[in-house]
Amino acid sequence: MLLGEDYITEEGEFVINMGPQHPATHGVLHMKIWLDGETIKKVEPHLGYIHRSIEKMSESLSYRQFVFVTSRMDYLSAHINNQACALAVEKGLQIEATPRAQAIRVIMAELTRLASHQLWWACAGLDLGGVTPFFYAFREREAINDVMEETCGARLTQNYMVPGGVMNDIHPNFQKRVKDVLKQIKDNFHEYDEILTGNVIFQNRLKDVGYISKEDAVSYGCTGPTARASGVSCDIRKLFPYDGYDKLQFEEILSTGGDSWARYQVRMAEMLQSVHIIEQLIDNIPEGDFAAKTKVVIKLPKGDFYQRVETARGELGVYLVSDGAAVPYRCHYRSPNFANLSAIPRMAKGAKIGDLVAIMATVDLVIPDIDR
Amino acid sequence: MVITGVCLLVFLVLLCFFLGYMERKVAAFMEIRLGPNRVGPKGSLQIVADTVKLLFKEGLTPDCADKFLFNLAPGIMVVTSMLAVAPIAFAKDFQIWNINIGVLYVSAISSMGVIGILMAGWSSSNKYSLIGAMRSGAQIVSYELSIGLSLISIVILTGSLSLSDIVYSQANGWWIFKGHIPIIISFVIFIIASTAEINRAPFDLTEAEQELTGGFHTEYAGMKFAMFLLSEYINLFIVSAIAATIFLGGWMPFHIGGLEGFNHIMDFIPSSIWFFGKTFFIIFVIMWFRWTFPRLRIDQLLNLEWKYLLPISMVNVLLVTLMAIMGWHF
To answer: B122 and B27, same structural domain?
Structure first.
């Protein structure tokens, strides 16, 4: 046989390696799959292809610098990663960002969430074989990136949040541009439903695929839309509000479906909630300083500090241990994608190869965040 | 005869160039972008540039591949798809081969294409290719049944397997208008099933880039890959031409019974324009499918055929037979 000796196991299962280079894994994730025909018997994720030891690097960077390394973890939620680190440092310093900085941070974080969910929607369509949705979503995502570029100077890894506030004030056009983007998103949102959500083929690909129960979602440590689709209330913005989320009106989207279709619907509804949050803030950005006064060299008191935020994919935790020096003694990130990935073998058991792609698409993995 | 054949081959290759360009422009139109616009006027030479690129690429054969079958497979694909062009009537009384069993010939030849796919998938010595080939076997064999049954419904009404006879039988109206609802149903089934038969989205499971990285042609590069592409476009043309011939009257102009003046004006439009207009309309519809639908899953694909299309076609053939016996059609 031409395929080599070990292509088939003793039980007659066909073993294929999906990744590390594969169109549907969105990065260097490696899944080893045991197949019986088209049916998946077992999935084993292999990690470490993009490990850059960000946690260890953080131990040699000052409290101002280490914030920006985290942009490279979940690069689609770069703002929110930075925000988590900035909040952790603020917790240690026992200061709070100025009201203006808080408002700007929330707007930026929600814009990031919108852009991230749009990229997810685009890729979900692409993974399931529809190329056209990609371009529809990128139309809006590009508009958001343009806003980011104008204010932060960068489009993807913005490095805009600093301990105490934000790096510089918003661009004079910021409010107008954001309102234009919101209008564009609301005007075009029905097109998303028309091209993908309402499609029978698309619904059949997602419904009853990759089911995970509420109990399993909790025990695997799933967070974010993945867990909320199984009915786990885990929105950090609601449960442990930060940066003034408690003063804002928004809903935590919950579903009880637990399958890929529920995850899809939760994310779609979250986009509209993000729009709603930004609308409340955009005309009410308080005047004042855009950053609180901090010392040039930040030194945290002895102790450990933990800050959690809600990224576009779930709960990101930043754990800092300080020995009183200008750099962290230890640093650990609790990344949402690592926990969500661990649930995929459970979801994919008994599914088809095409289902595994659908599951990975709706769990919305960002691989650099898994390996860090 | 030989000269006509050579001309036809050249025509088919040029047609594939045009279809490649058309596909990109249709995709761009669906995807709110411009499409190729740099090489040549309006990007029309882009496909020539791509062909030159493919020509100069290394025709790689993997070490572990079964070299004979691996190199034979693209040839089989192209030859089988080109053979099926022979009995198609491109214009009034212009047919390469007026064979009296044209419908049977086309369906027989087009079902041989699966051998090329299976050969490519098996000989590549690649697990993804093997899965792709396995899928295509199940898919093409299943969907052939529906295609056959929807072709039979017209054969029943016409009483002939010859494609030219079928065209002449539509002189007073195309079958899709004359045949009531059963023929419209078999037209829709034919379009769906032939989209699956030629492995185009939403039924492109044998390639399924996001699942199988390229399916049966994962290991092919350069001209060998281009030959798969060539056969895909020729197949697209053939199924559209057959659909146009069988259901939409082929080269026959649009006639309404009783309106002599109107029919006379329609006759002034050359018959080849009628044929290609109808064919390209169906090609556009199939491209439209590709750029707006997500892909089905393998079990859904087989369910669609065995649980829906096949039973519907069987009942439909009975209805058409009844209609033909009672003479209810126009």
So the answer is: no
Q: Do B47 and B67 belong together in one domain? A: no
Contact B127 A205 (CB under 8 A): no
Domain count, chain B: 2
| 8 Å CB contact of B212 and A135 | no
Same domain (yes/no): B67, B86: yes
Contact check, Cβ <8 Å, B65/A2: yes
Query: Contact A130/B30 with Cβ under 8 angstroms?
Result: no
At B226-243, the pLDDT tens digits run 888 888 899 899 999 999
CB pairs under 8 A between A and B: 94
Mean pLDDT, rounded, for A54-76: 88
B301 — phi, psi (to 5°)? -60, -45
Q: Considering only CB atoms, which chain A residues are within 8 Å of B127?
A: 3, 7, 14, 16
Return the domain boundaries, chain A.
50-371
Does residue B231 sit in the same domain as residue B254?
yes
What is the C-alpha separation between B196 and B205, in angstroms, rounded?
9
CA distance B225 to chain A (A): 19
Does the beta carbon of A7 lie under 8 angstroms from any beta carbon of chain B? Answer: yes
Q: Is the domain of B86 the same as that of B206?
A: yes
Q: CB–CB of B201 and A129 under 8 A? A: yes
Last residue of a domain, one of B41, B56, B71: B56
Closest by Cα among A313, A260, A363, A316 to A45? A363
Of B131, B212, B293, the CB nearest to A130: B293
CB-nearest partner of A352 from B130, B210, B298: B298
Distance of CA B288 to the CA centre of its chain: 14
Q: Which chain A residues touch B294 with a CB distance below 8 Å?
A: 125, 128-130, 196, 199, 201-202, 205
pLDDT in tens, B78-126: 888 888 888 888 877 777 778 888 888 988 888 888 888 888 888 888 8
Q: Give the Å distances, CA to CA, from A87 to A67, A154, B138.
A: 10, 21, 56
CB contacts, 8 Å: B304 with chain A: none
Predicted-complex ipTM score: 0.82
Task: Indicate the pairing of strand A39-46 with strand A161-162.
Answer: unpaired
What distance in Å separates residue B194's CA from the closest CA in chain A?
A: 18
Same domain? B141 vs B35: no
- On whether both B270 and B130 belong to a single domain, the answer is yes
CATH superfamily of A50-371: Cytochrome-c3 Hydrogenase, chain B (1.10.645.10)
Parent domain of B51: 1-56
Query: Length of chain B in residues, anyone?
Result: 330
Burial class (CB in 10 A: 0-12, 13-18, 19+), A372: buried
